[in-house]
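Weekly puzzle thread! Below is a chain. First person to post its structure in token form gets bragging rights.
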Amino acid sequence: MTDKRPAKRSLTLRGHRTSVSLEDAFWKEFCTIATNRGQAINALAAEIDEDRGDIGLASAIRLFVLRDVQSRHPSDG
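Winning reply:
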């Protein structure tokens, strides 16, 4: 099994370099979502950044990924 600790990932948001710490599973799914939408990772991260409010960017990305997965696999309950 892969390391469960978050790893630092570099992003460029509107011309500014930043980094987020995300677990491999979230990062891989985030990349898949961006590819499926025809977006670059940085563009999708910038979109999430604009709408994240007062939570951290890494948390906002995790929640974005979770909502996307849930929308594709709705629960029966």
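Puzzle host: Confirmed. Bonus trivia for everyone else. The helical segments are 24-37, 41-51, 57-72.
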